[in-house]
Amino acid sequence: MKQRVLQMVLWLMPAMTYAQGGSHDAPLRSIYVEVNGPNIASLNFDSRLRGHSGWGYRVGIGYNRYKDESYCLLASGNTSWWNGRTVRTQGVSVPLEVNYLLGRRQHKFETGAGVALGIFRERVHLHTLQREWWTDENDTEWMQEKESDNYQHSRHFGYYAYVNVGYRLQTHRGFLLRLGTALGYGGDEHTPYRDEWSLRPYAALGYTLPAGRMQMEDSRQPTDTADTPGYRAMVEAMGGVTEDSPFLAVSTSHGYRFNSRVYLGGGLALTTDGIPLFAHGHFNLMKTRTAPLVDVKGGYNFGYLDSPLYLSAGVGINHRFRPRRALGCTLSYFRIEDVNGWTFNLSVEL
Question: Which one of 21, 37, 160, 298 has the lowest number of neighbouring Cβ atoms within 10 Å?
Fold first, then answer.
């Protein structure tokens, strides 16, 4: 099985460096967050080999998980056994893909083939409840219960080989949207991919880097200022501590800037405690290039926790070094169910 994966990776690597005939423009490069597909969520870098269509590749880092519960009841005479088995698997994987875009302007058809390689941690919880009934010499009924728990931990290498087809929108302002589906096979029953074929629809939001899109045919636009309204993207890295462990996260947010002070949007984060999907408000308190800011996020956390609530609020400094580019530093307090703490956040507005 691992030999087949190695052969696929060796096949993909030359394709990422091979360019067929076509435009000699600067290659179009993008970053985006993808939901579902080879992973539950992933952060990716995508590039054409030449120009804005044709052959290209993507690499990324993603998070995946799986949960399965099963129960059975056995009885013999005056004794019964209730057995429960819970399997939880989660880990990080790296998607590698060769793809092809067909279309010259903003609307494109995309297709590709790739493999996601990951290391996953499996946790198996076995719970047994034994009950025994009997009657003593006074015809009094008695019952005795015994409970036991057993935990098993292991790590497994897994892969998901797939092909995908879909639609891609890339605008001259930098907005990227992908919609499609992937058909693939997972190579290990102890990983989230399981040992089976699966069809996985996907959606992605991202940002096209300026170096490539400056040469798009419809990219001539009036000069922007800090007050120019329009689409914006934010990428943020977070690091901090909780009561028990470190907290690390990366996120991306996409939305609309109304003026130099107000940005509203929504985004997705990959954290050590789940995958929050959130609404985002970013407010500069002054119109100067360097200004105090307030940053607020709230939404739904996809994870193993009982409560899905995600909240984050912080204050900091925002510095605008270009009309549409800014760097922000904030100190934030966050809460995901009963997990809470402080983080230092570094964000870039694109």
Answer: 21
